């Protein structure tokens, strides 16, 4: 048993039972080991959850970085869509990711920021745009995954239309991009909060 095996099994357990029910006791039973043996790899459950969050983000973390020839607007949309798809790959993926610190991804984040800045997006606007898109995406996926787990989500009144989560995500993302474009097109004289 190594760290990678523990994380893989923990993510499979997450998919099976959900974040609220993931425990080191259940994980140890799944791995066929005693619970204290998990502490060799992870000192706390928080450490385990952080490793799970990082591993769950691997598909997005390995997506191609933007190239000099890429249009920043198209890349911004594609990057947010990739993030959303990755969060949706795991049950409670957004909850697992929320509050995690992307320490292993700092090089990639810096490259993305440098790309936006070299494309003409003012630095502070690029930071706030990426933060807004990230938090918006996590929030959208939180709502989508919560609705999927709700026992009576299909019992809406006839006059309340069902929400198309992808359509709503795309509409909100377009608004964020539009705001970023507006601030990028004009001289950056105002300061971001």
From TrEMBL:
Name all HTH tetR-type domain ranges.
1-60
Coiled-coil ranges per UniProt: none
Instruction: Give the source's domain of life in one word.
Output: Bacteria
Known DNA-binding region = 23-42
Key words, A-Z: DNA-binding, Repressor, Transcription, Transcription regulation
Q: Which SUPFAM superfamilies match?
A: Homeodomain-like (SSF46689), Tetracyclin repressor-like, C-terminal domain (SSF48498)
Please state what the protein is called. Answer: TetR/AcrR family transcriptional regulator C-terminal domain-containing protein
Q: What is the lineage of its organism?
A: Bacteria, Bacillati, Actinomycetota, Actinomycetes, Kitasatosporales
């Amino acid at each position: 048993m190594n760290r990678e095996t523990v994380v893989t099994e923990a993510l499979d357990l997450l998919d099976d039972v959900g974040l609220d029910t993931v425990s080191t006791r259940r994980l140890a039973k799944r791995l066929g080991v005693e619970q204290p043996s998990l502490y060799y790899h992870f000192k706390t459950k928080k450490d385990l959850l952080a490793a799970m969050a990082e591993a769950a983000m691997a598909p997005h973390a390995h997506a191609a970085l933007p190239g000099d020839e890429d249009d920043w607007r198209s890349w911004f949309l594609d990057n947010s869509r990739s993030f959303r798809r990755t969060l949706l790959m795991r049950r409670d993926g957004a909850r697992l990711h929320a509050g995690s610190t992307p320490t292993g991804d700092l090089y990639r984040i810096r490259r993305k920021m440098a790309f936006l800045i070299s494309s003409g997006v003012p630095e502070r606007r690029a930071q706030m745009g990426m933060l807004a898109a990230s938090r918006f995406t996590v929030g959208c996926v939180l709502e989508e995954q919560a609705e999927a787990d709700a026992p009576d989500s299909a019992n809406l009144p006839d006059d309340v239309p069902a929400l198309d989560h992808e359509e709503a995500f795309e509409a909100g993302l377009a608004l964020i991009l539009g705001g970023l474009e507006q601030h990028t097109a004009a001289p950056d004289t105002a300061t971001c909060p």
